[in-house]
Amino acid sequence: MTAPDLDPVLLSRLADVAVHVGLNLQPGQDLVLTAPVDSLPLVREIAASAYRAGAGIVTPLLSDDDIARARFRNAADASFDRAPDWLYRGMAQAFDSGAARMAVAGADPMALAAEDPAKVSRANKANSLAYKPALEKISTFEINWTIAAYPTPGWARQVFPDLPEDEAILKLADAIFSASRVTGADPVAAWKDHNAALRARSGWLNAERFDALHFTGPGTDLVVGLAEGHEWHGGASEAQNGVTCNPNIPTEEVFTTPHAQRVDGTVRATKPLSYNGALIEEIEMRFENGRAVEARSGKGETVLHNMIDSDEGARRLGEVALVPYSSPISQTGLLFYNTLFDENAACHIAMGQCYSKCFLDGASLSDDQIAAQGGNSSIIHVDWMIGGPDTDIDGIRADGSRVPVFRNGEWAN
Amino acid sequence: MTAPDLDPVLLSRLADVAVHVGLNLQPGQDLVLTAPVDSLPLVREIAASAYRAGAGIVTPLLSDDDIARARFRNAADASFDRAPDWLYRGMAQAFDSGAARMAVAGADPMALAAEDPAKVSRANKANSLAYKPALEKISTFEINWTIAAYPTPGWARQVFPDLPEDEAILKLADAIFSASRVTGADPVAAWKDHNAALRARSGWLNAERFDALHFTGPGTDLVVGLAEGHEWHGGASEAQNGVTCNPNIPTEEVFTTPHAQRVDGTVRATKPLSYNGALIEEIEMRFENGRAVEARSGKGETVLHNMIDSDEGARRLGEVALVPYSSPISQTGLLFYNTLFDENAACHIAMGQCYSKCFLDGASLSDDQIAAQGGNSSIIHVDWMIGGPDTDIDGIRADGSRVPVFRNGEWAN
Ligand SMILES: [Zn+2]
Ligand SMILES: [Zn+2]
Ligand SMILES: [Zn+2]
Ligand SMILES: [Zn+2]
């Protein structure tokens, strides 16, 4: 099997956008790049673009679904609680030394669907624990980082199951290029405009300083309290190292930190969630005082329960994000089975770790201060989609008065 | 371009031989596996075999020639003195924690032939320095390790330039499978016999305890003093962690440590040397008191000079190895442009670092003691081939008497 060649101009532009807009890689800065081995054509373009931008050393770490499956099918039971600690520790050291971080998304979302969910969950937990010191440098925005996407065969088959593989890949490539805003002649200018639009939205929300958001829609009646001193972000963001980066290519969301103790009501997913190689469909949760006290799903309920039992913080929210139904990714009508795309097609919430960035003066806050202001902590951060064409959102002020934020899935103003 | 599928039975046997004979991987032991991305079909088999053998975590680190070239063509000048220190440091930590090490050889030997040799040499030196702490654990045999080979398209094109690529790959695969002794029904038994034969040769040399070897042949009249307390090895070897492994698949050599101050005379290469992506042909060196005081080559002389100028030890010998002209790899008549194969087709010497293993009770010797007994140290270890059909070797005893070791390229007894 050979994958079809993608448009070389668009592929090269996507690499340039990932390096210059996504990372804003600085001269002399190292880059740690994780990617599925199937995304090698993009990885090569990214490496070239990064070196042209003056990168110190680009270190690609390529993963392979077949090798992952070889583990689940053959390894001794004890192996599933292990992780390559030395590699994750090394990544944390690289970030400490100033390296930037890029991930290429696009691995087959169903790669591990046939494997034992208990083993997958244990392995994932072990990896999350080992990765925590490195991931914290990302979630606290110590360094500039970004995620971009590549249409691997496994992903394309999943998104377009009825098309021949080559056609599916090219169609997914079109969706990626378009959502990543590289189809126009000047992608950097397009991103500048897009970032300005997102900044206007987050600016309005920061000026309003709502105490909570009230989501209503089919199966959903949820009040999400916002953390004390929360700050909304969207688009470009300045990392603590002073570099302004775009952490997601594409991105359509504005997002902030909910209050881990002040989430109440019921909420129903509007899209399936692809997690750990399995699909969780028709999620419904009920929250009391911030904690998910009930969690059901039509499919993948074991995976869902394993996920929210990862640790105490896994049952509480670490992010709430607003995306209009008219956003370009939503308008494709596709389910991407990939958080980078699906979370940018709908309003969403995330179980688990919050971003300290989403607090006023967040970089100066200690973990205890963040927790005191309502910021959640966990080894996981899993977004799931709760917005659709019928979603209404009210902003609730501290005095109890209400302001329309979304009506019928769109910004109310 | 798609590479042809190799015989799945032989590929799986090669993986099993690499894991069980090469590494002798122990239950629960982690594995750090470096490989060219083009060798993915073998890497997948190795991962499965390692997990079946009870591996803890297998961490594949896949490299790509295109990315390497992207660096040399695009990177800022300062980048060529940099290396991913965090990754090499991590590998050393993995070995300290008990991980085994496997490398899959087979990258295109000419991958960097068109790049600036000065930049290639600087980058290689930076990598060698960063890798040194990890490499020392290999060169001192702290852990079990091995190298096996895979016929990548780039390598196959180089070995069989006149064949269509698919045919070249299949032919190189045949040579690898055959030299790696996996074509018979019981490869493990074949390796047991082969290891016994090599042990008989090294046993005789250890009983003789020669003071020096005298190589003569076309262009060669070289006396190689042997280190005090040197020990010959060949085939299977017990690492300090107690695991008996076969560090090279294939292997045909018996080898020991020369005396870094007692090598004198002239020596001519019998095969080209592929080094850092360039070809060095018709090497001639003259040694005085162990040091290469003259070094010429018909092609690649700049690369040769950069190599022996890597550090002070790079001009002295760290290994001398005996391989009969009738050995199976030699009999293929092929130049493999790959040390793993070419060094097992001819008697050879190596510039640079010695193996502490090649001393009696070597694991208990300090660096200073090894140096005092004549062991060389360097950031490089580069084998080059000096044996052929006309090679004669005399063993010289401490009393000056001589014993025929090789006559006309073959063992004299
Ligand atoms: Zn989000
Ligand atoms: Zn999120
Ligand atoms: Zn050797
Ligand atoms: Zn050697």
TrEMBL record, chains A, B:
GO biological process: proteolysis
Alphabetized UniProt keyword annotations: Aminopeptidase, Hydrolase, Metal-binding, Metalloprotease, Protease
Cofactors required: Zn(2+); Mg(2+); Co(2+)
InterPro entries (UniProt xref): M29_Exopeptidase, M29_N-terminal, Peptidase_M29
Alphabetical list of Pfam families matching this protein: Peptidase_M29
Highest taxon above the source species: Bacteria
Phosphoprotein listed as a keyword: no
The protein's name: Peptidase M29
Species: Marinibacterium profundimaris
Lineage of producing organism: Bacteria, Pseudomonadati, Pseudomonadota, Alphaproteobacteria, Rhodobacterales
